[in-house]
Write a structure and sequence with these properties.
With 206 residues, the protein is mostly helical. The protein has one domain. Helix 2 runs parallel beside helix 9 and helix 2 packs antiparallel against helix 10. It starts with a helix and ends with a helix.
């Protein structure tokens, strides 16, 4: 792979990744309500999900999803409903929990952050199609395709990890400035709102 082509991929993919999507909404929600550690664990789960999607795309699942409107919609709406459910649960917890209960539930939810990040990542059918369609635009026809695909996939993982961590740091700094019970509840509502917004975004895009 040519070095300049790789640099062009990094620049292009960084711009795309900066645009808020389901993973950004999820990580921001985790950072606001549960803190930076939970957000980082969520990012790890999202990255693991990304590797899973890369494997699926290599086996041609992306092409199948692109060709089958019914299958695409099934996966898409599973992701929409899952994110909406998480948002609803988070708002409900913020509304009813006392400071002690909220702290206890926070510890329990934090242990599941990796799973949440993974599920949100893999329940986005557009991501599978993206790995098939977008990454292929940066492959050098004169070089071995599989190794190039691996390099681009690894690069995209690093880019996503860095950008999501940036979002998590910004959200966690905002959270750190307010530690009262009222503020925690407010962040719970805000985090739930981010998740509902992410589900709405998934629902309204193809």
């Amino acid at each position: 792979m040519k070095f300049e082509l790789w640099l062009a991929f990094i620049a292009t993919y960084s711009v795309i990744s900066l645009i808020p999507g389901p993973s950004v909404f999820m990580v921001t929600s985790q950072a606001l309500t549960l803190g930076l550690k939970a957000a980082i664990l969520c990012i790890v789960g999202d990255i693991v999900g990304g590797f899973f999607l890369i494997a699926l795309s290599l086996f041609g699942v992306g092409a199948i999803l692109a060709a089958s409107a019914e299958l695409f919609q099934i996966v898409k709406w599973a992701g929409v409903l899952y994110m909406a459910y998480l948002g609803y649960q988070q708002i409900k917890d913020a509304k009813h929990d006392t400071a002690l209960e909220f702290s206890e539930k926070k510890r329990n939810i934090r242990s599941a952050s990796i799973r949440v990040g993974f599920l949100v990542g893999i329940l986005n059918p557009k991501a599978i199609i993206f790995y098939v369609a977008f990454l292929s635009q940066f492959l050098d026809s004169e070089s071995e395709p599989l190794m190039q695909f691996v390099i681009l996939a690894a690069t995209s993982t690093i880019v996503v990890g860095v950008i999501l961590t940036g979002y998590a740091l910004l959200a966690s700094k905002a959270r750190a400035a307010f530690q009262s019970a009222r503020a925690r509840k407010g962040f719970g509502y805000t985090g739930g709102g981010f998740l509902l917004g992410g589900s709405l975004l998934m629902a309204t895009t193809r």
